[in-house]
Amino acid sequence: MGLRDFIRAIREYPAALAELRRTQQALERSEQTCAALRDEAGERADHERFLTSQLAAVQTALVGFCPRLSSLEDMKRFYDTVSPSVDPQGFTLYHMAEKLTGIDVSSFFPYEDNRGLFTEADGRQLLRWLTAAHFHAVDWSIVPGTTYERAALREVDTAAPEYREFERQLYEKVLERMGFQDLLTPGRDKAARAPSHPLPQPKRGNTR
């Protein structure tokens, strides 16, 4: 190092030292932040474990004190009681109905879907369209000037055995999905749960 470089280094030393101190301070703040985040993560993990154990205790209490859900009415009443907390918009109910029927509402009703009718709909609103499609409770009419068909929903016969069987399967599977399977009538196996007749499948050609 020459004399000129040595003098330059002396002149730049205070600035370099100040920068080093700022870097060290930033590193210390980062370490403090990391430590705080670790503590927060630990607290959240502890709280999650507490909530999990609390939920398990509540479910055990439910099994011990609640009657078994043996009928469709019992299952629906129980779902209506817990849904404000565990399924407030009804999407668990709707998605299980989708799985049972194989119906995609947006594809089945393309005109209404293109109009954005389903964009803001909640699960219960979508379920009405799905059940109408599944049980052929739809009237179709051509939209003037287009190739689209507009759907008009009719009331589904909720007293029909096929609809009752559909609801029984739906609510049973939804409660199982929510973790309440221990409240359902014991001794249920696949053979016992299987419907005596297959659920009806939608056919667009028969609904017009």
Question: What is the strand and helix layout of this fold?
Answer:
Layout: H1 3-65, H2 72-86, H3 91-101, H4 105-108, H5 110-114, H6 123-134, E1 138-142, E2 149-153, H7 161-177, H8 190-193
Antiparallel strand pairs: 1-2
Helix pairs in contact: 2-7, 3-6, 3-7
Distance between the termini: 94 Å
- Return the domain count: 2
Percent helix range = 55-70%
Biggest sheet architecture: 2 strands, antiparallel
Q: What is the overall number of helices?
A: 8
User: What order do the SSEs take from the amino end to the carboxyl end, as H and E?
Assistant: HHHHHHEEHH
**Average pLDDT number:** 84
Structural class: mainly alpha
Number of DSSP strand runs: 2
Q: List the strand order in the largest sheet.
A: 1-2
| Radius of gyration (Å) | 31 Å
Instruction: Give the low-pLDDT segments.
Output: 188-198
Please state the overall shape, judged from the principal axes of the Cα atoms: elongated
Strand content: under 5%
Verbal overview:
With about 210 residues, the protein is mainly alpha-helical. It contains eight helices and two strands; from the N terminus they run ααααααββαα. The chain has two domains: about 60 residues; about 140 residues, no CATH class. A two-stranded antiparallel ribbon has the order 1-2. It is elongated and about 100 Å long.
Tags for this entry?
208 residues, 2 domains, two-stranded antiparallel sheet, mainly alpha, 8 helices
How would you sum up this structure in a few lines?
This protein has 208 residues and is mainly alpha-helical.
